[in-house]
């Protein structure tokens, strides 16, 4: 299972968000604290971020472990952004090992990361998936339906594959959207901005654990959490 995070707020460097905290995504790539599926996240890493005056995100991904990328470590302290999505990957068995299979996926203004797994057979075919990995097919489905349908897509896919784990994290430069469905997600709300992360990157007591089966929205005004009710069964 992968680990992911997002930030919306005052600009921070990618190093501050991804590399420097004591339990950063970098550390989580070999020593995650809350990961239930998989032990290391060495199958790649990705960072997507928004820059002023440019509606589409910039994205940097690799199929190598984050700890083996000195070029990123060199540049990350001078890249800053107020809206970031980052992930480290532990590939699900049978999934392709390639850069295009690593989150975040992107379409237009949106970035999207998936922490989990889903049976690809239950996903309706949609155009333009970046890879055959389950997460890319799921991302393409969300992009096709529109990010505002994120909660509906998760409920529908979760009903079609009860074993699916569907923690999604999306951003468009102005807000974050996330779901919890089978794995952990924590939030840190500060005066400077809001972070969402699969697990806290430090021991700040202000981190809160978000309930499973929730839809989370972060805007500059704050964070809202809505329960994801089950899809009504047919005939109900
Ligand atoms: N299923 C996705 C993959 O194979 C995500 C895996 C994960 O969350 N560890 O990349």
Question: Overview of this structure, please?
Answer:
- By secondary structure, the protein is an alpha+beta fold.
- It has one domain (3-227): 4-Layer Sandwich (Glutamine Phosphoribosylpyrophosphate, subunit 1, domain 1), CATH 3.60.20.10.
- Helix content is 17%, strand content 35%.
- The radius of gyration is 16 Å and the shape is globular.
- The structure holds glutamine.
- Residues 1-2, 38, 89-92, 95, 101, 114-117, 133-135 line the site of glutamine.
Q: Could you tell me the mean pLDDT?
A: 94
Count of individual domains: 1
Helix content: 10-25%
Secondary structure: number of strands: 13
Using the 3D structure, state the CATH architecture: 4-Layer Sandwich
Terminal CA distance reads 35 Å
Shape: globular
CATH topological fold name: Glutamine Phosphoribosylpyrophosphate, subunit 1, domain 1
Number of helices: 5
CATH class: Alpha Beta
Low-confidence stretches: none
Radius of gyration: 16 Å
Largest sheet: 7 strands, antiparallel
Ligand roster: glutamine
What's the assembly state of these chains? single chain
For the largest beta sheet, what order do the strands appear in spatially? 3-2-4-1-10-9-11
CATH superfamily: Aminohydrolase, N-terminal nucleophile (Ntn) domain
* Percent strand: 25-35%
Q: What is the succession of H and E elements?
A: EHHEEHEEEHHEEEEEEE
Broad structural category: alpha+beta
